[in-house]
Amino acid sequence: MELEYLLTNIAPWLTGDGPEADIVLSSRIRLARNLKGFNFLRKTGEASRREILDLICGVIDKVSPLSGSTVVKLEGLPDLDRLFLMERHLISRELSPDYQGAVIIGPEEIVSLMINEEDHLRIQIIRSGMSLSRCWEEIQKVDAELEKVLEYEYSPVYGYLTACPSNVGTGMRASVMIHLPALVLHKQIDKIIQTVGKLGLAVRGINGEGSQAAGNMFQISNQSTLGKSEEEILGDLEKIISKIIVHERNGRRVLLERQLLRIEDQIYRALGILNNARLITSEETIDLLSALRMGVDLEVLETITRGTVNQLFLYTQPAHLQKLAGSSLDATKRDALRAKLIRDKIEKEGR
Amino acid sequence: MELEYLLTNIAPWLTGDGPEADIVLSSRIRLARNLKGFNFLRKTGEASRREILDLICGVIDKVSPLSGSTVVKLEGLPDLDRLFLMERHLISRELSPDYQGAVIIGPEEIVSLMINEEDHLRIQIIRSGMSLSRCWEEIQKVDAELEKVLEYEYSPVYGYLTACPSNVGTGMRASVMIHLPALVLHKQIDKIIQTVGKLGLAVRGINGEGSQAAGNMFQISNQSTLGKSEEEILGDLEKIISKIIVHERNGRRVLLERQLLRIEDQIYRALGILNNARLITSEETIDLLSALRMGVDLEVLETITRGTVNQLFLYTQPAHLQKLAGSSLDATKRDALRAKLIRDKIEKEGR
After folding, report:
1. Hey, is B15 helix, strand or coil?
2. I need a surface site. Which of A34, B22, B235, B304 has the fewest CB within 10 A?
């Protein structure tokens, strides 16, 4: 399976031109679905899992948004490719070759399906900026077309039945990746996270569950999937995100009004290091790119686009670097290649 | 007294083109002298000190290396100007308006005289690079010409008599400012300092006695002035400095051979921050300029000259910045102006 074509694909969710893209990086919705006539995965044998995989792969040609998709089976897939797909948000850490896991990557990486992850099927749509409504429209279409050719496990009382009770009902998880440097600088972020948590939403760092909030980026998603319609869940999430956006914007205005020089200093130092370092870890890169993004969003830096910063976030990750290099690299070589990639990209942009 | 002319004067000791200038910043010799017929300063009254001042100022026209000198009396001199002269190594912290202190600044700031510091007269020569012999030749000439028109306190047994016993004999203090980044990186510097101390030399940081070794710069000077001739003292000092230079050169070679990428990373990061910061303290500046100088000396950076780095060391100090601005500035304004000065200078150089 050749994944190299993805390296040159600038997925639409990376372009940084969606609504509220100065604060919201991306919006994502996924639906958990299971097929009638099969046990939940934990209770299946290999034969059933292969059957599920074949069944789903066999129908994708009939689902128009999936036409021209790439099917990637995890069995036999090199670890590097698996990490690469994780970095691109196309698969989760849980998708396993031992469970005949696979991913179907739709055109432009907008829609994707994970097969045999925790549920038989997970459908995902990811878009740039604050685009939950658009994601919802699009994922409904995929879901509806799939439902025409697959029979879902569905209870009139509970809704969609899922392997983990936390997904029962809508089976929907909607999440928004949001960049909150001003709220972090003003030390208001802990309070925001607390409040958001009390409102029934989950707040996580850039790399999903349990990860720390590197680069001032936070992923906010719904927790409950039961007892409310998808539209209600999305409406609640959007309302809260809108309020956080207002807070962040106010925070940024205050920074520009009262601490312009300090903020410019932080932004330009980040640019100076990114433009000059010969060795740089991914942790430091994320923090400096966060400052760079703030520079673009505050219109302090005008020679760099938001899309470039977004792409650097993605392409400086370990598996992306190694795919770009075409070979596996030790940590120092990665740090050197990462530094070079960043310099080249920023220099190219500056011209 | 207008000192502004000094701001545009690139003193020869700053040009960075003396012998061994990749390691030795500057060489300096000063001679302590006292006038016959006057008590040492601690036991003089104001009238005597004025008499000493007038006496010395009255003869400088007869001393050819001092022709065209500027006389700066400390009485009434703004604090900023005093600090400015200290930063240029033209006066010491001890030279005081309360003691009718004054400085005579020779052409190009090569030779200077301090009057009424600890002794009645201190003669100084400062030159770029490892230039103790040249300094010695030149200071002997100034000293000899002065001795024709002034009568020094001199004992056939002890030599020149001085206010502090530690200067009796030759009255000579020779010092070399030396940049040792490789020995610091290799953690060999403490051993070197210990050894040098045992050999009867003093090692100090960039700003003289008691100051820390900021920017990997060390000032090494003779301690004893008695029982040996000036030539012997200078010979011993030169011999030890030569050995330190060999060690530093070896250290640099090892860095280039074994840690090139790490060293380049350090150098380019320093350049990137200096080139981009909007606020920078003098402490951080010294450390980053040290890395920049190493970059120039190791021929990693080729667009910047050693002279530029030397000038930045001097002109980014607080009094220099405020003299350049033409007004007194608070710490934040200084940090902002310092950052701008550095950016402008490096950008100009790069063109």
Report:
1. coil
2. B235
Contact criterion met (CB < 8 Å) for B276 and A269: yes
pTM of the predicted structure, to 2 decimals = 0.92
Structure letter (DSSP) for residue B114? E
For the stretch A175-219, pLDDT in tens is: 999 999 999 999 999 999 999 999 989 998 776 544 456 899 999
What values do phi and psi take at A277, rounded to 5?
-60, 150
Contacts of B278 in chain A (CB under 8 A): 261, 264-265, 268
Which pLDDT score, from 0 to 100, does residue A348 have?
86
How far is residue A180 from each of residues A23, A119, B150, measured CA to CA in Å? Answer: 7, 33, 73
d(CA B43, CA B50): 14
Q: Is B272–A268 a contact, with Cβ atoms under 8 angstroms apart? A: no
- Which amino acid is residue B140, in one-letter code? Q
Cα gap A125→A132, rounded to integer Å: 9
What is the DSSP code (8-state) at residue A21? T
For residue A317, give both structure tokens.
Answer: 């990750």
With residue A197 as reference, give the H or E element that holds it: helix A189-198
Sheet strand arrangement including B217-222: B70-73, B102-105, B111-115, B121-128, B24-33, B172-179, B217-222, B201-204
A262: which chain B residues are within 8 Å (Cβ-Cβ)? 279
- Using 50, 70 and 90 to split pLDDT, how confident is the model at B212? low
Q: Token digits for B31? A: 């001679």
- Answer yes or no: are the C-beta atoms of A1 and A90 closer than 8 Å: no
Tokens found for residue A241: 């995100």
Collect all residues of chain B within an 8 Å Cβ-Cβ radius of residue A342.
Answer: none
User: DSSP assignment of A293-350, as one string?
Assistant: HHHHHTTS--SS-HHHHHHHHHHTSHHHHHHHHTS---HHHHHHHHHHHHHHHHHHHH
Query: In terms of Cα–Cα distance, which of B76, B85, B154 is closest to B120?
Result: B154
Count of C-beta atoms within a 10 Å radius of residue A157: 4
- Tokens 């070759």, located at residue: A97
Contacts of B336 in chain A (CB under 8 A): 261
Q: Whole-angstrom Cα distance, residue A189 to residue A275? A: 29
> Cβ of A268 under 8 Å from any chain B Cβ?
yes
pLDDT tens digits, one per residue of A247-294: 999 999 999 999 999 999 999 999 999 999 999 999 999 999 999 999
Handedness of CA B54, B59, B65, B66 (dihedral sign): positive
B277–chain A Cβ distance below 8 A for any pair = yes
Q: What is the tens place of the pLDDT at every residue in A69-86?
A: 999 999 999 999 999 999
Residue A220: CB partners within 8 Å, gap ≥ 6?
Answer: A175, A176, A178, A196, A201, A202, A203, A237, A240, A241, A244
Residue A348, CA distances (Å) to A324, A342, B196 in order? 17, 10, 51
